[in-house]
Amino acid sequence: MNPVELIIKKKTGKELTQNELEYFINSYINNEIPEYQMSALLMSIYFKSMKIEEIQTLTKVYIESGKQITFPKSYKTVDKHSTGGVGDKISIMLAPIVAACGGKIPMISGRGLGHTGGTLDKLESIPGFRTDINDKEFKEIVEKVGFSIISQSEELVPADRRIYALRDVTGTVESLPLITASIMSKKIAEGAQNLVIDLKIGSGAFIKDIKTGKKLADLLIKTGEKFGQKVSVVFSNMNSPLGEYIGNALEIKETIEYLQGKELPDIDILTKTLATEMLLLSETASTKLEAMEMIEDAIETGKALKYFKDFITAQGGSEKVCDDVSLLPQARYTIPIISQRSGWINSIDSQQIGYALIEIDAGRKTLDSKLNYASGAFLPKKIGDKITINEEIGKVFCDDKNLGKMVADKIANCYLVSNKKVQKQNMILKILNKFSD
Amino acid sequence: MNPVELIIKKKTGKELTQNELEYFINSYINNEIPEYQMSALLMSIYFKSMKIEEIQTLTKVYIESGKQITFPKSYKTVDKHSTGGVGDKISIMLAPIVAACGGKIPMISGRGLGHTGGTLDKLESIPGFRTDINDKEFKEIVEKVGFSIISQSEELVPADRRIYALRDVTGTVESLPLITASIMSKKIAEGAQNLVIDLKIGSGAFIKDIKTGKKLADLLIKTGEKFGQKVSVVFSNMNSPLGEYIGNALEIKETIEYLQGKELPDIDILTKTLATEMLLLSETASTKLEAMEMIEDAIETGKALKYFKDFITAQGGSEKVCDDVSLLPQARYTIPIISQRSGWINSIDSQQIGYALIEIDAGRKTLDSKLNYASGAFLPKKIGDKITINEEIGKVFCDDKNLGKMVADKIANCYLVSNKKVQKQNMILKILNKFSD
Residue A165: which of A178, A180, A150, A184 has the closest Cα? Predict the structure, then answer.
């Protein structure tokens, strides 16, 4: 086979066969096809897309590039994947809640890059916590605690890891076929038998409109089906940061407080919606009502917090942080964020808030950047809230006063107001799975 | 500047500025931007094209990546570029004819790759002939003999050389903006003040239809104009090989015979059309009629052949080949090509003929392949000619009998016939320049 001919085939809109995709991807992984040819193929896929059968084949080739983790069928394992948002700590409260209800969650997660934080980074702000856990231990923790959250090992879907890194530097990230194969290969290889996807829609998200979201959802559901994985897609609003805190240790603090019963309306509705879908898909609950009762119970009785503690202990962390959040890394300074306008908030630029917080090392500029776990912000104001000029609308936590002030000013600028009352936005936009219309 | 942002800018159909193109191309040449990012940009240009201003800027950046050759304005230098065809030896007869009429032709030419032969390879079949001539000597030969044909030095348009090689292996050759910048940068950097382009149209050519040809012609003319170069585009038919011979030494023999007065209708009309355009553009002739008379005279009086001899001598070759073509490399065997059908020829697959002849080393498989200058074929039959089954319709010249027979069979298969009379095709389809409608 000739790589140039395959590039031209895709470039002219033709379908690649299983043999052709296997040849191209495997030769790339074995360094027999150079990066410039893979990059040309990726850009051709971006422009010419792929048929669903091709996407399923690509996903298969990705999966078979490495090893796979399996769980007994009886586990009815279920995982959640989020397409990424600012302040998105939902996995960390969701997993113990679903586990407390009887679900089994094998979760392989990622680190933050760009304006969104990574679940692994947040967890690693807990003193002693480890995410580089081998398959055997991973399976044991899932069995014993009900869930485990670890980093992707070198052996799991290496094709996706290599190609994802190349997409990041060649402008080929926003391709629905490539996004689908990337998400689904990891979630199938990790052994999840059921999968709920939190598909963020909005200005701060990857997917800007619900029409594109529906197209992606359809590809995800059909690809899961091909591999015997049930998939449900929740479309959620990503027009403002989730919860009140952004920053690694601060989001762990917020998770603990939520599991202790603190009221956080946006987090609450999203967590419970996703948890309900997870319990239904994995047949842990048989009706929506039953699922919701199980979830309420897991939180109110402290059972979910208990599962969270066991999880922290199982992965080498100090569970004491759950009883005393001041044991988490603390920033030296607290800088107020002062509103520069009066009116009702009608938009919050989450992406710019995310980028601003990178300046104080709450997020990464490059893959090698060192994080400051204590850095971050408290941002309780939501779209529809009324704010007044010179009012304190939040705080920045940091170890450098001057940088912190600059960041506070930048964040203040991310709030745009209207002089008319603004409608509060719905968090959940739609839920799609193969049983939906 | 960030290369990924520039790739995304082009990918989303936006225009790149001069600064951006300079940064991207120059960083690539200096190995600061990797090949996989250049490849992603090239594929984005293939899909999203470029505005004429962008193409002009790209051409400028290409030219400025190396040094430029200049000639006095009074020379009114004129060159010809062909988009490539099987048996295309036209440059070799055209240059001495135009020079004999008083034109100055600084011609930097290429080698063959794929199914088309290269002018340099053909010339190098003349014993002693050199094409690796430095700029100083090049200018001297143009001044003294009126024309010189040499190979592209390392210093001339290095950006195009690097990017052309990458396009070849990434499926990004067929992009009108990239084709335009590649042709025009070389033809401007070599010092041609006027340029005639032989744009081949047809099944065997790069450009399959006249609509795409017109688009390309428009880009070539406008880009030339930007740099003060007058461009005229001749659309010629490329549905059968040019002349009767294909093969390096065989095409030199054919050139000599044509300059001695042999009748070769397709070569004659194309050569004279291109020569007329060159004389008009360079203001060596003021009317078409005058140009045609000058050309006829140059051939009939033997003046053009004399110029060809002087050129061979100036570049180290043996001019005796012009008086005795048997001094050119001769193949050991002559294998007849036997027609497998009866009827009127209605199509000849020139591309497949070109590929078949690569088997006996008349052309190159890879850049490193060694040529056999003596190998080739005699193919006198044209579209519209009547042939009969078992008739000898041509010959293969080679040093390996068995390979030669295989090639003869392959070539015989490239002639398709009709049982009705087939119309002869026009060689010249259209001429376009800024003065045309």
Answer: A178
State the Cα–Cα distance between residues B434 and B437, nearest whole angstrom.
8
Which DSSP helix (H) or strand (E) runs through A304? helix A303-314
Query: Which of A1, A4, A12, A36 to mutate to test binding with chain B, by most B CBs within 10 Å of its CB?
Result: A36
Distance between CA atoms of residues B48 and A157, nearest Å: 32
pLDDT in tens, A381-422: 999 999 999 999 999 999 999 999 999 999 999 999 999 999
Question: In chain B, what are the domains?
Answer: 3-48 (1.20.970.10), 73-324 (3.40.1030.10), 330-418 (3.90.1170.30)
Q: What pairing do the DSSP bridges indicate for beta strands A343-348 and A415-418?
A: antiparallel
CB contact under 8 A, B11 and A43: yes
B27 interfacial to chain A (CB closer than 8 Å): no
- Length reported for chain B: 437
ipTM: 0.83
Q: Which is nearest to A28 in space by CA: A164, A186, A180?
A: A164
* Closest residue, chain B, to A169 (C-alpha): B4
Give the residue from A93, A41, A65, A16 showing the smallest Cα distance to A298.
A93
Which pLDDT does position A434 carry in this prediction? 64
A175 conformational bin, left if phi > 0, alpha if psi -120 to 50, beta if neither? beta
Nearest of B177, B171, B162 to residue B56 by alpha carbon: B177
Query: Picking from A30-44, A110-124, A202-216, A373-387, which range would have the lowest pLDDT averaged per residue?
Result: A110-124
Q: Is-contact B119 B80, C-beta < 8 A?
A: no
| Contact call for residues B178 and B172 (beta carbons, < 8 A) | yes
DSSP reduced 3-state for A282: coil
pLDDT at A437: 41
Element (H, E) at A26: helix A18-29
Contacts of A24 in chain B (CB under 8 A): none
**A238 band by pLDDT with thresholds 50, 70 and 90:** confident
For residue B334, list its beta bridge partners: B397
Nearest-angstrom CA–CA distance, B231 and B281: 8
